[in-house]
Design goal:
Number of strands: 3
Shape: globular
Number of helices: 15
Strand order of the largest sheet: 1-3-2
Oligomer: single chain
Length: 383
């Protein structure tokens, strides 16, 4: 018996070391995000009337301060129902509790990794750890990329004429809006190709890998195997689309509609403080376009969670449109405080205090995966 105990104890020690290493890495990433944000915001402050900005922030009401935070909490709730709806079509009865946790920590990992690349891998890992099939989890999570770009492209096309007028108003920020439009179209085309003809897209990527541009991509991404990984990603994406989109029209339409609501709430979180500080009610279509395009461009700037880059792009564009850059910066800082930094704190608290339960989803007699009650002996099985 003593030998068996000796054999079991080392993995626990390894797991403990791994947990401590992960925790240290998380803390390090949080500090990095805060330092980068502080530095970039100081630089932005050199180009606006920082006195006006600070004075406006001092006078902000509690309601305007918490509105962005509550908006993102509402997005978590809506996103949870989005996952519940789609998983139901795949014979998985996801609980609200697990879906909510997945969204919170997925957002945390996105906020702590360059270009928000860490959120989706964590979401897949978490669902798989709960007992869902890895392919099912990957398909559902990856399909969100296509859905988000389709909704964003639809908004841009619907308000395209207004977008042209917006570019004329944005001054130097017009370049950001143009790049945002181009990025949206390119990403959507790539995703459509991944859905309809992944082999063609993979062949193009492998051919590009041998060119100067391919070498430049490898250098920037610090990954010599970027093309191979891209091919794996497009194959997974294609499988996910075909599994989810064929025969599940009602669920996908509901999912797209809820994502549109998500976008409106995200934008509203900034719209409230902006109109209050600037004193100008920007037409909603123009503001929504600005919000989507600036967010898309900022996402490609490789700072953790787009920290600092979001503030810079929004100040540049909204400052030009409103003619009040100092007031616009005040609104953006309040928005980021509630929608990003407080959620960084909130997500960290949840991550460090709520462990992940392993293998708690099991098939019932009808083959439907459901959350099982955790026995006293299983409560210790966490990651």
């Amino acid at each position: 018996m003593s030998n068996e105990k000796d054999q079991v104890s080392p993995p626990k020690e390894d797991s403990s070391r791994s947990d401590k290493k992960t925790s240290r890495s998380m803390v390090k990433n949080i500090i990095t995000v805060l330092l980068i944000s502080l530095l970039i915001n100081i630089v932005i402050g050199l180009f606006v009337d920082i006195g006006k900005t600070l004075q406006a922030i001092k006078e902000v009401s509690f309601v305007r301060l918490v509105t962005p935070f509550l908006c993102i909490m509402l997005v978590y709730v809506i996103d949870t129902f989005r996952y519940i709806i789609v998983f139901r079509r795949l014979n998985v009865h996801l609980s609200f509790k697990d879906g909510f946790y997945n969204n919170i920590i997925g957002t945390l990992f996105s906020n702590l990794t360059p270009s928000a690349t860490g959120g989706q891998p964590f979401q897949i890992y978490h669902y798989t750890k709960l007992g869902l099939e890895s392919t099912t989890s990957s398909n559902v999570v990856f399909s969100r990329i296509m859905e988000s770009n389709l909704v964003q492209l639809a908004i841009i096309l619907i308000f395209f004429r207004r977008g042209i007028n917006l570019i004329a108003m944005a001054g130097k920020g017009s370049y950001l809006l143009i790049v945002g439009m181009i990025v949206t179209v390119v990403i959507t085309v790539v995703l459509i190709l991944a859905f309809t003809n992944a082999h063609l897209l993979n062949a193009l990527a492998l051919k590009l890998d041998k060119s100067r541009l391919g070498k430049w991509i490898a250098k920037v991404s610090k990954d010599d195997k970027w093309a191979e990984k891209f091919c794996v990603w497009t194959d997974d994406l294609s499988k996910g689309f075909k599994l989810l989109w064929v025969g599940n029209t009602a669920a996908i339409v509901a999912d797209l509609a809820l994502y549109l609501v998500d976008q409106l709430i995200y934008a509203f979180a900034l719209y409230v403080p902006l109109t209050a500080f600037v004193g100008i009610a920007i037409p909603v279509p123009e503001f929504l376009l600005t919000f989507i395009l600036c967010s898309l461009v900022s996402a490609f700037i490789p700072t953790p969670g787009a920290a600092g880059s979001i503030e810079a792009s929004f100040v540049l564009v909204l400052g030009a449109i409103t003619g009040k850059p100092a007031e616009a910066m005040s609104a953006i800082l309040i928005w980021r405080l509630g929608a990003f930094y407080l959620h960084l704190l909130f997500g960290s608290i949840v991550y460090f205090t709520v462990p992940i339960k392993a293998k708690i989803y099991k098939p019932d007699k009808n083959g439907v995966l459901r959350r099982q009650k955790i026995s006293a002996s299983d409560k210790g099985e966490t990651t």
